[in-house]
Design brief:
The protein is mainly alpha-helical. The protein has 2 domains: 2-245, no CATH class; 292-367, no CATH class. 63% of the residues lie in helices and 8% in strands. β6 and β7 form a beta hairpin. α3 (62-139) packs antiparallel against α7 and α6 (196-206) packs across α7. It is rod-shaped and about 205 Å long. The two termini are 97 Å apart.
Length: 367
């Protein structure tokens, strides 16, 4: 999924960069190749800067973070302007191809309309002449009235002939203009077929399919593309970096505020989170503190020399240790206990002939 996200981000960024660079070159046609180079470098730098700012947001200096973030936003705006320029140029070029053909058709339509207006005017004059004759016939009821009407019609004969001739001429011109218009109109219909979808969009949004309304609809569509094109590429790149960062710590739970991220409250285990303890505090904790009342007081009594009366030998001294215990509590108690010490054999035989010699215990008992 990470590689797919990276691939989508770079593909979208590449398309946005291409449209932006070509659009910027169209905005500044005097320096085509320098604009191409500048736009390409800026687009590549924008992607690198976005990744770096995301990964080093916590460690980077504040002024550096703010500047780079502002630079990324401005570069996104420049990219969107380039995309707008590219798509607008494409629409204008197509409109330019359709324009001359549409103008020819409009001129022919105007000529045909003029001839039809002439025919209509001549027919109105003929109708007025007929009404004049009918009025004379209607006001008179004798033969004189009929003769007067016939005279009026004869006086109109020349004018009627002219009007009928003009009508016939106009009809012939309309026929010729229609024949001339047919192939041009067919070419216009083919060119305008590309405007079919946007024409329906214009009718849906603005309620009309006129050329000016179509241009408005085209600008609206271009603005929508600008909003989602380059910003989506940048966000996809950030999302890919987030996924990669999570994969680097895969297998290690993310602990936040003493809880594992992604687990509900019931699923949270008991965590023993290690706490850093300074060295001095650790040394203090290693010391064992015992109250003075709990320490036994040991006193050693002086050794006493005892001589056996029967044998005359010296009995090794027996030392005792007097241990006093102080029991802590509200009422202190005093206990004395005599504890015998392990008996030691004398190192010297004081009654022997050579008392200064060290006694050796031999098999024969001799020195």
């Amino acid at each position: 999924m990470i590689y797919l996200t990276f691939l989508s981000a770079f593909a979208l960024s590449a398309c946005a960069a291409f449209y932006s660079v070509i659009g910027l070159a169209a905005i500044f046609p005097g320096s085509y190749w320098p604009i191409i180079v500048m736009g390409s470098v800026l687009e590549a730098s924008k992607l690198v800067t976005t990744s770096w700012v995301y990964r080093n947001w916590k460690t980077a200096p504040r002024i550096m973070k703010y500047y780079l973030t502002t630079a990324i936003a401005i570069l996104m705006l420049i990219t969107s302007m380039g995309i707008f320029g590219y798509l607008s140029k494409a629409h204008l070029e197509h409109s330019t191809d359709v324009g001359p053909v549409a103008d020819k058709v409009a001129i022919l339509d105007e000529k045909i309309k003029t001839e039809r207006d002439n025919i209509e005017a001549n027919r109105k004059q003929l109708k007025q002449m007929d009404e004049a004759v009918d009025q004379v016939m209607g006001r008179s009821q004798d033969e004189k009235g009929a003769d007067k009407a016939v005279a009026i019609r004869r006086s109109q004969q020349k004018e009627r002939g002219r009007l009928l001739g003009e009508i016939s001429t106009s009809q012939q011109k309309i026929s010729v203009l229609s024949d001339e218009r047919a192939p041009i109109a067919n070419e216009l219909r083919k060119a305008e077929s590309d405007f079919g979808p946007i024409k329906y969009v214009a009718e849906l949004i603005y309620g009309s399919g006129e050329r000016d309304i179509i241009d408005k609809a085209v600008r609206l569509v271009i603005m929508l593309i600008m909003v989602v094109f380059d910003p989506l590429a940048v966000l996809l790149l950030i999302a890919a970096n987030m996924s990669m960062k999570e994969e680097e710590v895969e297998g290690k739970p993310i602990i936040k505020n003493g809880e594992i991220v992604g687990l509900s409250t019931k699923e949270q285990p008991n965590l023993d989170i290690p706490v850093f303890v300074p060295q001095k505090a650790k040394e203090e904790d290693d010391k064992v503190h015992v109250q003075k009342e709990n320490i036994a007081e040991i006193r050693e009594e002086p050794a006493q020399i005892v001589i056996d009366e029967a044998s005359g030998e010296t009995i090794p001294p027996i030392t005792t240790k007097r241990v006093e215990h102080h029991a802590p509590g509200i009422f202190s108690e005093h206990h004395e206990v005599e504890e015998p010490v392990k008996k030691l054999e004398p190192k010297y035989d004081y009654d022997a002939e050579y008392a200064f010699k060290e006694k050796k215990k031999l098999d024969g008992g001799d020195f």
